[in-house]
Amino acid sequence: MKKYNDCDLKSCFLCRNSLASWLPAIEGHKRNFIMRKGEAIFHEGDGVKGIYFLYKGTVKVHKRWGSEKELILSFAKPGDIIGYRGLGNEKVYPVTATAIEPVTVCFIDLSFFETTLEVNPRLTLSLMKFYANELQEAERRMRNLAHMEVKGRLAETLLHLRNRFGLAKEGYIDILLTRQDIASFTGTTYETIFRVMNEMSEEKLIRVQGKKIFLLKEAKLEKLLDVKNLPQARKEGPQKKK
Amino acid sequence: MKKYNDCDLKSCFLCRNSLASWLPAIEGHKRNFIMRKGEAIFHEGDGVKGIYFLYKGTVKVHKRWGSEKELILSFAKPGDIIGYRGLGNEKVYPVTATAIEPVTVCFIDLSFFETTLEVNPRLTLSLMKFYANELQEAERRMRNLAHMEVKGRLAETLLHLRNRFGLAKEGYIDILLTRQDIASFTGTTYETIFRVMNEMSEEKLIRVQGKKIFLLKEAKLEKLLDVKNLPQARKEGPQKKK
DNA sequence: GCAAAATTATGACATACATCATATTTTTAG
DNA sequence: CTAAAAATATGATGTATGTCATAATTTTGC
């Protein structure tokens, strides 16, 4: 972890939501670091020392079960806050944050961050609403994991990534992930993602060129999120279940 | 929804975390209601009018996909806040809250609640930490849905319910749920829960008497949460994966 | 620039779980 | 108290997806 200093005090979640008069205090406390691809910013189980803001690069936030099974909870991009999942009662990170390309992060130690919250009630409220949104999203994904099949979840993953990372000039989703990472984010295995992506390619819903993914028929992808698609509607009778 | 008034201004999340001097204001704004078993306090998709506190009874908070598939996110008991999932950016409930036994709830309208947050920074902070904990829990359950099999998830469900609702004098978990609700909370179907509960009964891990569930071997149930249990450990070699 | 490591590709096979059907028992409402 | 509705019980059957094995290709580190 090498020190580096180039945060602009403008783009991160913290600076965007703090009083202008507080920015100098942040300036005085922040510490910037750069990390290489594959390095972890913190690990699941580590004590929480502070909070991070991503300045450059991409980070995956993930959680393990045993040594093999992994679930990726989110991909962070510049400006995003990282480590907020550790701010609950138990001051231990429930997730690992790993750089998936070279990153620059800004670190704020916990006690200064807590002071910042006290001084900026608006920040606390913003953060509260931010959590509320995250919770909503997490619980929607929970429902999808419980009830949707992989194809629908993959469609959701692709649309989500496209919304969050936009399109590169060439037209592909502007984040390059391994199939394994796509699988871990979707909550399935590499092999299944491989097969379902092939299926979508054959149906011309997407086009895949190495790690570049193009969405060809977004409307059809969105339909995959709907309740199916019933193999055959069976219960035709007028018995309405309330 | 019949009006009824017997909240004590002491036990709910709001009263516990507000300044004593603010309680009279709450007193003046709260409205209590009673509802029958099966009635919904609000529905997924409804606009958020305010927030509720459960005074008496039990409520399930759930989310649907289509008309059949349901996932229960939590069971609320007296003192719990309900409806906080609707406080994100979009003012629409992402869940339904349904009484599973007769309940008394206390309603606080949104604008007064927002004022309360402004006046009680400590409440805002408490609520923020509360969300942080909820998010952590939701994401742990997400991982479990993605990677654990039903038996492990059911073990977790039972231990969770026992921690949250305690034991009745007779020794059973002090909440009486239908198998369908247990299934919806665990993220599976009635039939599967039925079978896995039988299996656990045969193994003497639990004892079931109608809706009363006794945990006989908690240590063994906890072990079911660990990474398996590998059918056979295969890769014996010293190849360590980093 | 090359060896090692990671990623992608793909078929064969196993299985946990959902689905469907139907009967019985329990609970609820009028 | 009784009819209707809900919950429980249980077998038969299908399938989506995980697991395993192995090879080819791409990327990475020195």
Order of strands in the sheet with the most strands of chain A? 1-2-9-4-7
Euclidean distance between termini CA atoms of chain A:
58 Å
Task: Give the H and E element order of chain A.
Answer: EHHEEEEEEEEHHHHHEEH
**Strand content range of chain A:** 15-25%
Helix content of chain A: 25-40%
Regarding quaternary structure, how should these chains be classified?
Answer: homodimer
What this model shows, in words?
The structure is a homodimer of 242-residue chains. In chain A, 38% of the residues lie in helices and 22% in strands. Chain A has 242 residues and is α+β, with helices and mostly antiparallel strands. The first copy, chain A, has a 5-stranded antiparallel sheet with strand order 1-2-9-4-7. In chain A, strands 3-8-5-6 form a 4-stranded antiparallel sheet. In chain A, helix 5 packs across helix 6. The longest helix of chain A has 27 residues, at 121-147. At the A-B interface, strand 5, strand 6 and helix 4 of A face strand 5, strand 6 and helix 4 of B. Chain A binds a DNA duplex (30 and 30 nucleotides) through helix 7.
What's the quick description here?
Chain A is 38% helix and 22% strand. The first copy, chain A, contains eight helices and eleven strands.
